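Write out this protein's structure.
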Amino acid sequence: MLFLIGIFGLCFVNVLVEFNLIYSTFFGDIVSHRTEFNKAVTADYFTYKEMLYTIFNGMERTHYHSGLFLTTPIIFALLLSRIFQIKYESKVKLIFWFIVGVTFWGLLIKFVIYNEGHPNFLDTFNLDRFNYLLPFLWLILLGRLLVAFKWNSISQKTSGILILLLTCYSVIIGNEELMRNYKILNYEEVDYPTYSQYYEPILFGEIKSFLGSENVKNSNVLCLGFVPNIAQFNGFNTLDSYQNNYSLEYKHEFRKIIKAEINRSEYIRKYFDEWGSRCYPFTLGLLANDLVGKNSKLEIQDIRFDFEQIKKMRGKYRISAVAIQKVNPSDLKLLKEFNSESSFWKFHVYEII
């Protein structure tokens, strides 16, 4: 009973948190950009070889979005339980087949989408995301198996401890944030921002003071080489953003800005046209890279944007993490560079003429 109350409570909280998304999806009068999702195009690598890879990869390791670790020790524990003829609960078999079912479900969704060849319901709702349950299911399976081991047996006790240690090691190694923190504590160089470096409130405060708070409040900016939501966090209005649901009309208006640029690369054209949740001013030099630190060797030779369309959408400034080598003085004017010894970013602030 308590379990059911917990499940309903969790669902209720999620509905509250995602109320705007749910309402706009089912009751809103705005056409979502998700209606143009077409994974059959963006996943054009999907072949029968890829199907087999998806099966074995899904069984060998979990998804990096929900916790990456190797499942090999757990599968080994499952095999040992058969060798030792350990009697375990029927729930163990249920959990294992649920894992297999979730893995094949993701494969089935990809297969159907690829063979449809056009946008459909399965594209819009990302039904293959059930594989995010796999880390939880694998660890529950491991726990159930270890409980069934006879810990008064030296061979089973040794095997259980070894399997547990290997799984813990895999979880730690697979946790990128934890490994970066370890390197920082060990005074090793890490080419990735800390939390404070990522949002960089000090540099953005300097930019805001330089441009003027009222000016920032009444104008829009474009971001290049970093996630626009960082600028939003620091009080800037942005034309670009990373959103899971927004107006299809806005997507089409924004596309006018980057039309000439994305036509230079089939990759970024598909990335925007057939997905578009990253509504970014993509460039040939950076492609979809939105984490370009000041030590990066990436550069932009030139950009082919429709600056009249930017001004039409009330865009006034461009904040770039990368210097633009060839700037047309009739389109852009470099105002100032912002940097510090401890910062991850180096921002170049341009005014749109």
